[in-house]
Structures are given as C-alpha cells and as structure tokens.
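Intended use. Records like the one below are meant for learning the mapping from a protein sequence to its folded structure. Do not use them to infer anything beyond what is encoded.
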Amino acid sequence: MPPTLPPPPTAAPPPAGGRLAAAFGPAGSDRRRVVVNSLWTTGVFVANAVVMFFLSPYVLRTLGKGAYGVWEIVMSLTGYLGFADLGVRPAVVYFVARHDAKGERDEVNRYVNAALVTFGACGALVLAAAFVVAPLVPRWFDVSAARAGETSFAVLLTSASMALTLPLNAFSAVVVGKQRYGLLCGTDLLVLAGKAAGTMYVLSAGHGLLGLAWVTVGADVLEMAVKAAWAFRIEPGLRIAPSLATRDRCRALMRYGGAALLVSLAQLLIWRTDALVIGATLGAEAVAVFAVGSKLPTYARSLTTAASRVLTPAATRLEALGDRAGLLRMLGRGSRSMLLVGGAILAYLLGVGEPFLVRWQSAEFRGEAVAVLVCLTVGAVGPIAAYPFEAVLYGAGRVRLLGILSLVEAVANLVASLLLARPLGVLGVALGTTVPSLVVRLLILPACAARSFGGGYLALALRAWTTPLLATAAVALALRALVDPAAPLGWPALLGLAAGTQVAFLGLHALLARLSPPSLRLETLPVPAEPAR
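Structure written out for the chain above:
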C-alpha cells in the first residue's frame, strides 16, 4: 500500500475586505468608521462650498458692497454671542462618547440633561446680550441711518435663533458622540438646499438683510430640531428629565467646558475679529473687500475642519480604553491626511488665485482682495496641518492645554491686526492672522500634542508633513511659472487647471512618498509601548 501523502499546501486566505480593509481598516473598525465619517463631513462641506460659490456673487451684487459688509458684521457679532454656550457642547460630546464606549447608558442620560439645563441658561444670556448690543451696532460700525434699523433687527433675529437652538445642542451632541455622522450630514444637506432656495427667494423679492436673517433663523431651528429627533431615535433610553441634571454632572461639564471656553473664545478672536477690526478702522466697504479675498482660503481651511471633526469622538473612545499609542498614530495619520486633502487646493490658490478671483467676482477685486487671498492661503497651512491635533486633544480631554495655546494665538492675532490695519489696510489684518497661525500651529501646538501622548515633535512632523508640503510647494511654483496672473482666463481653463493641479499634486506626492527614506515614512513613527495609566 503506497504511503499516504499529505495534502498540498493551500494559500493563506486573503484578509477580509481585501484592499479596502488594508487601506481603511476592516468593516466595523474604529479606523473604517473615522474614514466613512470623514467622507460624510467632507461631502457636506463640498456641498456648502459649491452653494456658497454660486450664491456669494449673487448676494454681493444684490445687496451691494455696503450692505454686504454690514451682513458680514452681523454674522461676526452673532458668532461672538455663541460664546455663551460656555464650552458645554464639546463637553457633552466628550462625556457621551466616553460613557457610550463603556456602555454606561444612564450616565449618557444624566450628562445630556445636565447640558439641557445649562444650555437653557445660556440661551437666556444670549437674548439678554442681544437686546443690549443690537441698538448699538449701527453706531459702532458707522452704519448709515437708512440701514440702522434693519441692522439692529437682523442682530436680534440671528441672536434669537441662537438662543432657541442652544438647548437642542444637548441632543445633537448625542448623535456626534455616538459617531452617527451619516444622520447629521444627511440633515445638513437637506437644510442647506432649503437655505439656498430661501436666500435666492428673499433677495430676488427685495427683502435684503432682514430676509437673510429670517432665512437663517428658519434653517437653524429646523436643523437642530431634526438632529434632536435623531438623538431620541438612536438612543432609545434618552429622555428629557431635568431632575437628572445633578450638580456633580453640571460641575463636570463646566470643568471641561471652562477649558473648552478658552478655545472657543480664541477661535472667535482668530476667525471672527477680522471683520470687526476692519469695520471699526477702515469701514464697511473694506470688510467686503477682505471677505471676498478671504473666502477661498477659508473654504480650504474649513474643508479640513469638517474632515477632522470626526476625530474627536474617536479619540475619546481611544482615551477611554487607555490606547495612547493609538492616539499618537491618529495625530500623524490625521495631519498628513488633511494636508493631502488641502494641499492641491492651496497650490491652486497660490498659482491661479488671482485670475480665479477675478472671474468669480470681478476685476474690481484684483488688488487688495488678491493680496489677502495669497496671504491667508499661506496662513492656512498651519490650521490645516494642526486641526487633527486640536480634535484629538479635545477627544482625549487635554482641553486646558489647547485653550492656553489658542488664546496665545488669538491675542497675538488681535494685537497684530490692530497695529497693521491702518498702515497696511486689509493686507495688514491678513498678516496679523497668518503669522501667529503659522508659529502656533506648526511649531508649538504639535510639539505639545505629541509630548502629551509620549511622542516627539520632530519625528511626527517629519513623517506627517514632509512629502505633502514639498508637493504643495512644487506644484504652486509650477503654476506661478505657467499662469499669467493678469490673464483673463475663462471657466473651462480654470477648471482644467484645477483638475491638472489635483493630478499633479497626487502624482508628485506618491512619487516623493515612494522615494522617501524610512525615516520620513509615517509607518515608522515611534509610538509608546505602554498606554497611559
């Protein structure tokens, strides 16, 4: 009888999910969830950008430069009133995500109701402040007598909207904390469509600033009401019970929120002060010039904000599980990914920004507005690279550190903008924003964040930033050499250059990543061996 031969070896089965799982993690994993959620939030941002791209020139032409500048001032002021939430919203997201990760449903309910009570008080503060501030706004910003009444009423309306929707943030935070961004973003898209249609209608009907204010109120209230309804759907045990708002939960929210409040204040000073500084020193028409020049860099920056936001509840989950190494990896992957998302946009704006702006708006904005665009595009590198650090620090509960650094940047921004506004005009205000942003967000914040999780700044920065920044700079220089800034380019040429920029950026980055030594590859990032205790 011949000997029995062993069966031939079989090939190892491929990993579940194939290449998709290799790139983004297996289905149901935290990494896959972050990627999917980022795609959702990025899609909403792109939709917003497209709508604003087409609406902005129409709003400017319909209102005129003076009224458009007044509207920018109104939105900046109501943004400051949002400071009244006392930092509670990110605190709710943190505690909901933390206790949801541990399966502690009762604690989720207690923190939500504590937030509901706190937000109700905050809404009352917003209304009280609005009644005091609204009559003074026309005098502060030299608004003409013909527009004084509607300006004050617009401030009251948008503030009332904020007061009504603040309490609903307690429930929308549940949806964020449970990382159900598909529900959030689907709601945002529907509200965006309605808001765009409403804006077109009220402006075409001649309702002006007040029409815009009413549309804002309706859209905000509808959005937050729908998100609150989703919270009750996905968390069946959730209920409105103010008796659950115990003092210790309120104190915990306020402790976290106090540090988050510093960050909120700093963000308001950094991104909302420019219009106020310009309005107070140079006039409302100069606000319109700055707003036009800053819109495109703001879109690039906001795109990465939207994509990075999903890291916060994901980081809270890792922090709750004690995974410090995972948090450090999230910093590196997140920062590199955001530069990959924003790099081609920044290169395009630096190389083709002037003809694009002229075609989008008009040749009237060729001078100062273009200078603002270029300056703020350079300044956007810092926020784009650093937003993942902010999101992870928020999620891991290191908010006090983030608050201090953000406040340092904000004070430097405000002082520099005030000093440079009169001698340099709107460009001086842009420089006052750009320089502190680059210093804090490319040097100080990443170093502190890396150290918080046991990593090193240099190792993280070299691996996360080298190849995307080199690719961005090279493509921008090539565009500057190829495109005449004064050339009257049409939309086909501009869109073709945009597509070419994206292809060139991704191709060059892939080549640089392939040729880079191991010391510059993110996969070799040193991580701590032991989780934090």
